[in-house]
Amino acid sequence: MNVYDFDGTIFYTDCTIKFAFWCMHRHPKLYFTYFPKVMFNLAEYKSGKIQNHLMQRKLFSFLTMVDDFDVQIEKFWNKYEKRISAWYLAQKKPDDLIISASPTCIIEPIAKRLGVQFMASEYDREYGVFLDNLMYAKEKAKYITDHGFPIIENFYSDSLADTPLALLADHAHLVTKRATTVVDWPDLNDPKIMEKIQKKVDTGWEIHLKEKTIKVKDRARMDRENQRKEDN
């Protein structure tokens, strides 16, 4: 089995960011209700004030504001499906697995078009919360081991954050130059490379697990309150 990251690996850019701008162009109010907040959030992440998963949750929040999501995501992939990398299409197999930090609702339509398996971040578009850990860095490797997948023959990614999953594969490949060039995974004996990797894979995993529990409880509480209002 071959396993692939998606953004920057077999697709030339980050599909979530690309789709966010797609939706802002078609729903201009998002430039005022969404864009300033996500830029502020990104600045906080860059300065080290918040964890990656909190930044990603704010990035994904536009999905709660797009009423015609189903229409827009199909139109989006109608236009951008052709930007799937040619090198990937030439070697694609039915048992390929795409594993991505982008939300399931964006990855699922293109995975179905490609006819391959996928795993992505479970994000609730109604409540704006993660239903499970962000599918990023260590979480990708955990998902593979927990679900007993077959041996990974080849793994492809553009990010050193995916090193935990790269270590599970017989062969790991780094994808560069906007998803066009495939090279060998960097030498892990290089101290500078390991320093970069350690920074990328430290994602506040336990914090995210705790946050998930809190958010699910909040969601259940809101459901109960809404039901009581309807009953009254």
How do the helices and strands line up, and which of them pair or pack?
Blueprint: E1 2-4, H1 15-26, H2 30-33, H3 35-46, H4 52-60, H5 69-80, H6 86-91, E2 97-103, H7 104-114, E3 117-121, E4 123-124, E5 129-130, H8 138-146, E6 152-157, H9 163-166, E7 169-176, E8 181-184, H10 191-201, H11 205-231
Parallel strand pairs: 1-2, 1-6, 2-3, 6-7
Antiparallel strand pairs: 4-5, 7-8
What does this structure look like?
The chain is of the alpha/beta class. It is built from 11 helices and 8 strands. The strands form 2 sheets. A 6-stranded mixed sheet has the order 3-2-1-6-7-8, with helices on one face. A two-stranded antiparallel sheet has the order 4-5.
Task: Please name the defining characteristics of this protein.
6-stranded mixed beta sheet, 11 helices, 232 residues, 50% helix, alpha/beta, two-stranded antiparallel ribbon
The description of the largest β-sheet is: 6 strands, mixed
Please bin the fraction of helical residues: 40-55%
Q: What's the rounded overall pLDDT mean? A: 89
What is the beta-strand fraction?
A: 15-25%
One letter per element, helices H and strands E, the order comes to EHHHHHHEHEEEHEHEEHH
Strand element count? 8
Short description:
β4 (123-124) and β5 (129-130) form a beta hairpin. The strands form two sheets. The chain has a six-stranded mixed beta sheet with strand order 3-2-1-6-7-8, covered by helices on one side.
